[in-house]
């Protein structure tokens, strides 16, 4: 059975194409041992210290993004805040961002707000004020679930 060897970069992402392919009959643990004992020894010195991922060639080779779930949550939060700003009729000449803040402008309560991008100055509130960030996160989760 063939095994694909992929380079794993310092940021944790795996290369798209295999660096090499080798043949080994056995389980994944045996293939990894075989790779490190025999195949890796044939690599040039500068390649021996790199990290590698070894996958059976006959199985799916998709790369899994470890941050995919976080990115999707952030995308939905941005959508909720953008809709809230549009519904409130916020018009602003400078670049703005949304965020959860605890500041004097929110009377020392947690609130999802519109902020100036460069300075993070408060522009307007988009949510009710909350006593703690857990309540604010729960409000955001509820808004995300109500997205259509």
Description:
The protein is an alpha+beta fold. It has a three-stranded antiparallel β-sheet with strand order 2-1-3, with helices on one face. The relative contact order is 0.12. It is built from four helices and six strands; from the N terminus they run E-E-H-H-E-H-E-E-E-H. The protein has helices at 28-39, 45-48, 68-88, 133-145; strands at 2-8, 20-23, 51-56, 96-103, 109-116, 122-125. The protein has two domains: 2-56, no CATH class; 68-145, no CATH class. It is 34% helix and 25% strand.
Blueprint (SSEs and pairs):
Elements: E1 2-8, E2 20-23, H1 28-39, H2 45-48, E3 51-56, H3 68-88, E4 96-103, E5 109-116, E6 122-125, H4 133-145
Antiparallel strand pairs: 1-2, 1-3, 4-5, 5-6
Q: Which residues form runs of ≥5 with pLDDT under 50?
A: none
* Spatial separation of the terminal alpha carbons: 47 Å
Query: How much is the radius of gyration in Å?
Result: 25 Å
Quickly give the structural class. Answer: alpha+beta
* Sequence of strands across the biggest β-sheet: 2-1-3
Run of helices and strands: EEHHEHEEEH
Number of helices: 4
Total separate domains: 2
Number of strands: 6
- Largest sheet, described in full? 3 strands, antiparallel
Give helix % range: 25-40%
How would the global form be characterised? elongated
**Proportion of beta-strand residues:** 25-35%
Mean pLDDT: 91
